[in-house]
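Researcher: Go.
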Amino acid sequence: MVSVAVSSLGRTDLFFIDQGTKVNGQYYRDVLLHQQLLPAIRDLSGDFFTFQQDNAPAHRARETVQLLTSKTPDFIAPALWPAIDLNPVDYQIWGKLQECVYRSRIHDVDQLKSRLIEEWEHFHQVFINEAIRQWCPRLRACI
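Model: Structure:
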């Protein structure tokens, strides 16, 4: 599994979760949020950012919601999450990255990880900006 954060200011590195790791609420908070995502997001944008996530069980865990409510400047709370996934990473960026990664055959997990890192380093900010630009129209369409 791979995690990342994106914004119009740029993007974080890819964060890989070791195969076989159970991503429960505690792992998500302690490792992905505290150690990786939130520090990388703050390095990218300072103390002004909106934090959105999807409806994964680790994301909607009570302790996770409490953490993000208190530790991020603008957290979109679960009560405001739409029934469908409107996260720009999910609806556009992963698909575009996948197209780049799978231009040639992948033989194993190590090669997949290397290819993901290589393609992410060359991934154009234009694609990220377009996905973010589509966010508000997608929200309005759902309403």
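Model: The chain has one domain: 2-142.
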